[in-house]
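[Q] Does anyone have a clean structure-token version of this?
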Amino acid sequence: MKKKFKLDTNLVRGGLTRSNFKETSEAIFLNSGFVYDSAEQAEAIFLGKKKGFQYSRYANPTVEMFEKRLALLDGSEACFATASGMAAVFGSMMCQLKAGDHVVSASALFGSCRYILNDILPKFGIEVSFIDGKNIKEWNKSIQKNTKIFFFESPSNPCLEIIDIKQVCNLAKKNKITTIVDNIFASPVLQQPVKFGADVVIYSGTKHIDGQGRAMGGAVCSTNEFKENILKPFLRHTGPCISPFNAWVLLKSLETIKIRVLSQSDNALQIARFLEKHKKIKQVYYPGLKSFPQYALAKKQQSAGGTMIAFKVKGGKKDAFKIINKLNIFDISNNLGDSKSLVTHPTTTTHKVLGEEARLSLGITPNLIRLSIGLEDINDLKEDLANSLK
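[A] Here you go.
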């Protein structure tokens, strides 16, 4: 869009490109390829001398609209959509790493992210150091001459560990290190890491962006220079492209993401307060609670506490399972950010791949339950939890 509009307008109209048919809603271009007026035009487009679409693995009109709109929401210069959030994580790293490079990562990670760093990257001769991301001294101490990337989630999955984004990014810039922030838990509605100095921001479109459990997708937000010169060549030729249909679903979902996430966050805060007072709950993890150890930092970085809650019940795995199984409204699912409230047991699902020792070091114990709060009536959700806790 030529004029600079405010966020709510950009969420509805950002990146909009109408075809010659002048459709109201954004069009879905489900074609795989494109035609040219002449061989000369095709040559010019492939040489980059003229703008034009070549192949949907490279770029697509529907995908481009989604990318432009998400970049406006994230506050980044550019965006590249991928087939999934994990494709975005892997692509954002591998596009700039080679054998002999070094990566520093916070230990508190989603299971698949941890698997990439711990199991896949070392196979390519890339060294990875895991640290306590909350401690800036550990970031500083872990820097080597060959360190290329800082990677972390904030808030982390599932215990919502908060990392001081600005502090870590400032350290990275001093040492010419690229910072990649996984912003999936907070969503671009509640937190824009680029404002704190992040170079690259990762999203899973499958979570809050879709928010209705329909489509897979991911995105890498960055500067134009990073996208065009480093990321795009890698993703274009390795092929983790998003389906134009999925991109259209995510594009349309961006129109309502702010309304959904803010409402879900309001519900989550009330649920967290309810759980905190319950006699059968040992501990509640929620950035919006004043009792949360990093409450001040979360308030500084996020506009709300978010849609995710983790809590520990008094007892063990058996007690956690009993509570989960008695829930009526909450669906048992490892997804998150959905308009429907979801519950999962991280030890046996999302973080099973970490192994017991790694899980316990991160506080992921058998009595830990993770909630993704949806858009249902708050009193119904409270009643459902109260009944299950009986």
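[Q] Thanks! Anything notable?
[A] The CA atoms of residues 214 and 233 lie 29 Å apart.
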